[in-house]
Write a sequence for this structure.
């Protein structure tokens, strides 16, 4: 506590220049006559200067390496994505393999790839695009089964729609009362092949990376 | 500066672990400074500073990109330091010798590593004395004084780091200054 007339908070307010002009003038008048407050203020200024004079400390030289060595192992998917971004050539090779598998699979599916439809109502078959179209305003009373082609529904289907080796497209005005099923054996086969292919790529990569890590990172 | 930091954080969020090393490089000295000034011991400071970065890494998804990264990081470091102080024995004094082994302050460590001329030794002794007085402050005043006078942060930033109103930060700085004044005035 400074002198009897001054609150300690006032000294700090003055020090931090948080007083109004009037408060400041009054306090400065007091300072001229009060040795106690003047000394207190001087000591506070010296304290701050001393604290600020301590040089900044620096983290040890191996700090960053230590932190990096302690980070948890990256999630597989994230690691794989980062890896893919950094190795575009391998990615290109994988895409090539995928195309290769796709062409093999279309050979595998063999003949019988002609579009065919089962159902009753006014639909038409667009042979060039390989699409069955249910035009706007038309209603198919029962189920609709499409093989080896897609279906575009702009009108209504009151039964189920099943697409084998194709995809259904429902226009915004179109309506299907029943269920839509997509049976896509070739696609699922490709999907399965692709997944196992990529799984192997990732495994090979992981094995190598663990090895590289233990060689180049003595800290852990 | 902020744009660079944001870009690095985006990389880290996308899963590029190596990008995190750049963040550590940028902030390691400041984070280490906070933990060292709070704890007064190089080994503990290194421990806590490392832990702060590990927490930042594992919680990077919860960091709000619209806020200042340093504020978020310093908050983690300050909280970990305070936790560490709380876990110490209640009768533990910071100027007590630690475990009877070698001295563990920053300055004595530098002094042991290299031959120092006389005036440097005096300077280090002076700095060590000030550090000891800061470390002797109650932790709630200590954190406010460190963030204000050693990290040069604004009252608003300190308030965010310590999660308290600016008025409370001011009071703590005033009380901290008073306590230090009584200890340092006889120098
Ligand atoms: Zn007075």
């Amino acid at each position: 506590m400074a002198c009897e007339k001054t609150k300690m908070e006032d000294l700090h307010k003055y020090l931090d220049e948080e007083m109004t002009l009037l408060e400041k003038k009054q306090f400065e008048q007091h300072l001229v006559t009060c040795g106690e407050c003047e000394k207190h203020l001087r000591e506070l200024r010296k304290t701050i200067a001393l604290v600020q004079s301590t040089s900044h400390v620096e983290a040890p030289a191996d700090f960053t390496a230590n932190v990096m060595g302690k980070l948890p192992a990256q999630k597989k998917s994230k690691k794989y994505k980062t890896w893919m971004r950094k190795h575009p050539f391998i990615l290109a090779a994988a895409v090539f393999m995928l195309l290769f598998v796709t062409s093999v699979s279309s050979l595998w599916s063999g003949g019988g790839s002609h579009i065919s439809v089962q159902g009753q109502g006014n639909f038409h078959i667009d042979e060039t695009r390989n699409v069955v179209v249910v035009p706007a305003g038309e209603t198919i009373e029962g189920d609709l089964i499409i093989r080896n082609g897609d279906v575009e529904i702009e009108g209504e289907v009151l039964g189920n729609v099943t697409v084998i080796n194709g995809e259904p497209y429902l226009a915004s005005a179109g309506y299907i009362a029943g269920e839509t099923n997509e049976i896509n054996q070739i696609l699922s086969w490709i999907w399965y092949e692709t997944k196992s292919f990529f799984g192997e790529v990732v495994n090979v990569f992981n094995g190598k990376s663990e090895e590289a890590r233990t060689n180049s990172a003595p800290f852990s | 500066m902020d744009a660079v930091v944001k870009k690095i954080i985006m990389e880290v969020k996308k899963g590029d672990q190596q990008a995190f090393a750049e963040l550590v490089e940028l902030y390691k000295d400041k984070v280490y400074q906070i933990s060292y000034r709070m704890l007064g011991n190089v080994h503990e400071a290194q421990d806590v500073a490392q832990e702060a970065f590990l927490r930042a890494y594992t919680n990077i998804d919860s960091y709000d990109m619209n806020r200042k990264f340093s504020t978020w990081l310093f908050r983690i470091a300050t909280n970990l330091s305070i936790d560490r102080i709380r876990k110490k024995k209640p009768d533990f004094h910071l100027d007590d010798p630690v475990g009877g082994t070698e001295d563990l302050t920053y300055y004595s460590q530098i002094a042991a590593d290299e031959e120092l001329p006389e005036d440097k030794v005096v300077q280090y002794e002076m700095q060590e004395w000030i550090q000891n007085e800061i470390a002797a402050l109650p932790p709630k005043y200590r954190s406010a004084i460190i963030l204000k006078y050693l990290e040069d942060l604004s009252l608003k930033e300190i308030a965010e780091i310590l999660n308290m109103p600016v008025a409370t930060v001011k009071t703590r700085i005033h009380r901290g200054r008073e306590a230090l004044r009584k200890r340092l005035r006889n120098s």
Observations:
- Residues A 2-3, 5-6, 30, 34, 36-37 surround zinc ion (CB under 6 Å).
- Residues 49 and 167 of chain A are 76 Å apart (CA to CA).
